Amino acid sequence: LEVDSARASVEHGNSRPTQHFTSIFNTFVLMTLFNEMNARKIHGQRNIFSGLFRNWIFVVIWISTFILQILIVQFGGYAFSTKALDIDQWMWCLFFGIGELIWGQLIICIPDSIIPECKKKPTVKPGEVEEEEEEEEDIEAEPSGIPSEEETAVKGQILWIRGLNRLQTQLKVVNAFRMGLDARYDRDQRKSLSAIALKHRQSASLDYADADNSVEPAQQQSAHEMDTIMHQANR
């Protein structure tokens, strides 16, 4: 393909995209795409293109994948670790991809006689096929078992008991959930009452302290006035 080998650059830790690995990647994808054509026929048919355009989903997916592959190879760059190929390299990749169609035709030419017995699919004789079909018809012709009234009543009782058990279980779950909520509400209410009482005691103690502080200056003032009067009387 006239492409420089990229093994040496990889061994030296160079991770740049190269045409060498891009050609390998492109060839692998194209071989897979053309092998999808071979996979359309699995019973030894040679014309793999018969009925191709009746399956538009396959055609659209195949063409979309091919166009996407061209875009990835030519414009992928560092995002897809690819480097653009020239027209000659693309022709070589297409050559190997189309070779899958030729390889599929060669595989069809291999006769079944040279395939080992263990690899062959088990064959069924025409007489055996008719017997199997008759047995299937007999089985289908047999009437299906219709349940009696007693079986229907028993099944109804079983369903009723199951429904009742489920209802009881659901009621237990609801009651347990409600009890948990009630206990949590009582706990929160007690905490709020204790907080209110504590706040009330703190406010009462603060008021008492303020009252004591206001009385002491008045007593000191009256004592000072009495001392002044006694001093004047002694004079």
UniProtKB/TrEMBL annotation:
Residues 15-107 form the Cation-transporting P-type ATPase C-terminal domain. It comes from Schistocephalus solidus (Tapeworm). Gene3D superfamilies: Calcium-transporting ATPase, transmembrane domain (1.20.1110.10). It comes from the Eukaryota. Its main location: membrane. It is a multi-pass membrane protein. GO terms for cellular component: endomembrane system; plasma membrane. Residues 121-150, 208-235 are annotated as: Disordered. This is Cation_ATPase_C domain-containing protein. Residues 156-191 form the Plasma membrane calcium transporting P-type ATPase C-terminal domain.
